[in-house]
Structures are given as structure tokens and as C-alpha cells.
Design a protein that fits this description.
Two copies of one chain form a homodimer. Chain A contains ten helices and 14 strands. By secondary structure, the first copy, chain A, is α/β, with parallel strands linked by helices. Chain A has two domains: 126 residues, 2-keto-3-deoxy-galactonokinase, substrate binding domain (Nucleotidyltransferase, domain 5); 116 residues, 2-keto-3-deoxy-galactonokinase, C-terminal domain (Nucleotidyltransferase, domain 5), CATH 3.30.420.310. The first copy, chain A, has a six-stranded mixed sheet, sandwiched between helices. In chain A, strands 12-11-10-13-14 form a five-stranded mixed sheet, sandwiched between helices. A three-stranded mixed sheet of chain A has the order 5-8-9, with no helix packed on it. In chain A, strand 1 and strand 2 form a beta hairpin. In chain A, helix 4 runs antiparallel to helix 8, helix 7 runs antiparallel to helix 8 and helix 8 crosses helix 9. At the A-B interface, strand 9, strand 12, helix 4, helix 6 and helix 7 of A face strand 9, strand 12, helix 4, helix 6 and helix 7 of B.
């Protein structure tokens, strides 16, 4: 790995490319200097190369060729270079060791692979991108490296991640955000898609799910419509109720998951956008679970930082000390 | 009600208008003579009146003005004349007595209202149209008028209907078909939407749901994608697997519903399209539940028939016998 005063970190998901110019401090700690955005993997029209360089060229002009570290769907079958999932349990050292390097227009490019795991019911699960936030979270406290922890990463696909002794043991995906978008815009349930968030309606939806009988999500969803027909919800409240119902179902399933004992969790850490994280926190508290919210951007940078430091350290250790020879 | 040798029965739902010219036999039994189709309630561009008469005018030219009986979304808030839901428990006599009559272009038009009920968790439920199939089913055997029965009407919105002593006691809606359509065409789960049905993949999806932990639908859905990523499902098998997963969830929730004791059901009657009914039957059998399938069109006509006979009988009884006066 060439030594550089700057690196570029790229979080390249399905919908967005988010690039960060980072200064490498003496202790190999990264500081964000500048940010830039581009098209997500599924939206790239020309080549990935062109899309990347259009985004980072101003930095290259200023600082010369810089190492680029990428994570997310860019390493998937629909991305630039497919990287194999690293099977869980896994940890920082494994992930750093299995990064995929290639050269493009004389830039050293590194793709950090995603993770896979196998759940109790023989179902596979996968993530690409969120692992960086989890690695970042592990750096936040020495307490995170001992004992059992559950992390919730809400979003288009919520991820629930089980940590044991600093290792990522397994994780579960719920398509909560994608279902919410589809049902809000395309189903018979919602007439007013631009309505403001309504706290009471959200709570009503969450309570309905949390109190409902076994496996009733598919039988309870229609209440979004029937409550409007009977004047118990206005059209403008219905979307918040649907949000409560979906987040309630997601949290309820997580609390009943056989992969961990929710009763033994002192706290769930939430890494996500502020409002969404607060909604998950609120519903978890109904279950008597304390939460702590961590901002996504900070965790992502911290994760990049730990991978960067780990790779630099490995390189230092593997480089023969020519001064002694 | 004017006496006529013919009547027109119209099943006018959200997506389709299906009209039937029926001959009234001496015993007031109806026989279908001709059929015609038109635009559903949500697709009508001009007026409902114009849409209806374009459809039935050939019959009017031949037979003169005929009584028209309509059911379905045409009686909803987005339809022609909104009719109030009849609250359950209810039965044929109530439904026939609460039909809404009006005159249009000198035709006597009758709209048969939908039904509502309240479930154990205080959730309202509603139906418009399916009640005719249920009334038809009640006519199929004297056994249907005694004891408890559960009817499943699969479709865009599956309805599970509880019958006690010939009364419609309550029912539950699952948005199974709508979720299937949305997830097949708009989500990340399915790449090949036109793939042929695959029985083994359907069974795999149904088994996955039936064997899964409590409330895991929202956590299990992602297996449609992860199984493709790990080569356990081909892109062309994924849609059948999704179908199994959704129908499995629907049936599982029905078997766990608190409104009835599934263990005490000798049989579930299914009224629906042939292939879909067979899929529900298959999944119910895994639960040890016997099923009997009834064709939709036959049940709808039989339901119309029973409402028509009931209304005619009421009218006969209320008409003073002038011959004796």
C-alpha cells in the first residue's frame, strides 16, 4: 500500500455514491476534508470508472493519484468487481485481509467485501456496506469488544447484528423500508403519501403489531385501510400508522428471534438516520429495551478508519526492514 | 320489484365489470344466458351509467328494460352509489332487506351492500363482493346451514370467513395477492417475473414459513433474495418460492387466528380461481386440514340467485292478496 497523506473513502450503494476525501494523520487516524456525491450502482449509465473519476477528479487534480477504498454494492454481482462474501463469524482482521485490490488509471483501488452468515433455519443472510458501520461501532468503546451486543441498523433493509467478544457472529435482514416504500406509493393502503409524520398514529400502528397474535402481520396490514374507512385514521395519518405497524413487526420479530435471547440484552445499539433511529428506539423501549443511537456517517468513517489502520499495520509488519539488512 | 323473465346480474369490482344476462325460471332459479365485460370501478373514465349501458345495451334491445342487480366496489365510496356496510353477524335475509334501489334511465337498479365486522383486537374488517360467493356457498348443502365452517376466498385480498349456523359471523382480510404483485414486479426480490410456476420452489417457500419462528414474515422475506445469491433458487424459481412464502404466511396466520379454533375445523371450503385454490389447499393440507374447492363463478351466481329469490319472496309476502279482497 503506497504511503499517502490523503485517501478517498467511497460508500457506493445501490442508490448513491458518497465519496470522502480524508487526510491521514500521523497516527493513521482519518479526518474528512471534503465530500462528493454520485450515481448509485443501479443508476450508473456509462462505466463505473467514469462515474467514480467524475466524482473524485477535483481531489486528484489537487493531490495527485490517491488510494481509493470502496464498500457497498459496488462489490456485488451488479457492481464493478464482484467480491466474495466473508462468512461470519468474522472480525476486523479477516475483513481487512480479504479486501480486493486492483489498479485503474494508475489508482490503487481497494474493495472491502460484504459479509454472509447462516441463520438457525438454514437461511443465508448477506450485507454489503453495513459491515463498515459495525466495525466503526466496535471502535467506540472497549466495552463493545467484550460480551454480547445487538446492533440494529434500520433502513431500506434493516439489519440486526449479533456481536460476541468483538466478533460479528450473525445478522438478520428485514425488508422494512422497502415494504414501507412499496406500500406507501403503490398499494390501496395510502391515499396521502406526502402527509406529515404523526406520532400518535405511529404509536397506534406499533402497539397494534406488538399486541397482536402470532404471525399476524399479513392479516393485520389491512387495518391501515379499514381504520380509514371507519374514521379511526384520517388519510393523512395512515402513512404514520403503516410505519408503526412495519417497525413494530420488525422489532417484534427481532425480540422473538431464536438467534439471540432478547431478555438478556441490556441495550440495543442503533446506527441509522436520526428520525428513523428514534422510531426504532421508541418501539424497543415498549419492549423494555434500552437503546443508544449512533450516527451513520460517524460509524462509517470510523469503520473505514479501522480497516485502513489494520491494512497499514499488516503492511508495515510484512515489509522487510531493509535498514537492518 | 317488477316481474320479468330476465334479469341482469353485475359483479362490478375495482378492476373488472362482469355482467350476466340471466333467465328467471318458474321456480325463480336463474340460468345464465349471456355474459359481457366492462371496465372496473377504478378504471371508468366517463360515467358509471355510460359504462354499464354500453355493456348491457344489446340485451336491453332484445328484451327491453330489465332489472339490474349489482355487487362489489360499485357500492363503495369510489363507486356509483355508496351503500353502508351491513355489520356482522348477518345472513341472507338481512342482506336482501338492506339492498339499495334506484332508478336510472327507467331501469330498476339494485346494489347489494358489502359487509363489515369487528375482530378480537378491535380491528374492523370489510368486504364488498365476496359476500355473494359466501351466500352462494350456503346454498350448496343443508349441512352448510348448521354448525361452524371456515371459508377461504383467495385473491388480491384473501378473505377468511367464519360461518356459524348459517350466519356470517366475522371475517379476516390478508393482502396476500396485492403483496405478491408488488413484490414480484417492484422489489429487489424477483428478476424473472414471467417465469413458469415451479411446484418444488412453491413448497420450499411454504415450508419455510410454516416452520418459522413466531412473527418472522418480515424477517423471512429476504430469503427470496439470499437463496438466489447462494444458488439455492434460480431466478426463474424465485417467484414460485415467494408465492409459497406468502400463501404459507397467510394460511399460518389463519391457523393461529384467535377468532376460531383451527383444530376444531373438519374442513376449510375454498372459493377461488382453480390454480390459486389448489395452492391454498396444498398448504392447508400440510396443517392437516381437509379442503373442498368451489368455483367462484358458480358461487357468485348462486349467491345472486339466493338474494333474488329472497327479495322476490319478501315482495310476494308483502303484496296484499287482492284476489281475496
Amino acid at each position: 500500500m503506497p504511503i499517502s497523506n490523503y485517501i478517498i473513502a467511497v460508500d457506493w450503494g445501490t442508490s448513491h455514491l458518497r465519496a470522502f476525501l480524508c487526510r491521514v494523520n500521523d497516527d493513521k487516524h482519518l479526518t474528512i476534508i471534503d465530500k462528493a456525491n454520485g450515481l448509485g450502482v443501479s443508476k450508473v449509465i456509462h462505466s463505473f470508472e467514469k462515474t467514480l473519476f467524475e466524482c473524485i477528479n477535483p481531489w486528484v487534480h489537487q493531490h495527485g493519484k490517491l488510494p481509493v477504498f470502496m464498500m457497498g454494492q459496488i462489490g456485488s454481482s451488479i457492481g464493478w468487481k464482484e467480491t466474495n462474501y466473508i462468512p461470519c463469524p468474522t472480525q476486523l482482521e479477516d475483513i481487512s485481509a480479504k479486501c480486493v485490490n486492483f489498479s485503474c488509471a494508475d489508482h490503487d483501488i481497494t474493495i472491502i467485501p460484504g459479509l454472509s452468515c447462516r441463520l438457525y433455519n438454514d437461511m443465508h443472510d448477506v450485507m454489503r456496506g453495513e459491515e463498515m458501520q459495525v466495525l466503526g461501532w466496535l471502535q467506540q468503546s472497549p466495552q463493545h469488544l467484550i460480551g454480547n451486543h445487538l446492533i440494529c441498523l434500520p433502513g431500506t433493509h434493516t439489519k440486526w447484528v449479533l456481536i460476541k467478544s468483538g466478533q460479528i457472529v450473525l445478522f438478520k435482514t428485514a425488508m422494512t423500508g422497502e415494504l414501507y416504500d412499496l406500500l406507501s406509493t403503490q398499494s390501496i393502503l395510502i391515499q396521502e403519501n406526502n402527509a406529515e409524520f404523526n406520532q400518535a398514529s405511529f404509536q397506534l400502528g406499533a402497539d397494534f403489531t406488538l399486541k397482536s397474535e402470532q404471525g399476524s402481520f399479513i392479516h393485520g396490514l389491512f387495518s391501515v385501510r379499514s381504520k380509514q374507512l371507519f374514521g379511526e385514521l384520517s388519510h393523512s395519518q395512515a402513512k404514520s400508522y403503516l410505519s408503526g405497524l412495519l417497525i413494530g413487526s420488525d422489532v417484534r420479530a427481532a425480540m422473538n428471534a431464536q438467534e439471540w435471547q432478547s431478555s438478556q440484552l441490556a441495550q440495543v445499539s442503533i446506527i441509522g438516520a436520526k428520525h428513523l433511529s428514534q422510531l426504532f428506539s421508541q418501539v424497543l423501549k415498549v419492549h423494555g429495551i434500552n437503546t443508544k443511537i449512533y450516527p451513520v456517517a460517524d460509524m462509517t468513517l470510523s469503520g473505514f478508519n479501522s480497516v485502513y489502520q489494520q491494512m497499514s499495520t499488516s503492511l508495515d509488519n510484512n515489509t522487510p526492514d531493509t535498514s537492518m539488512s
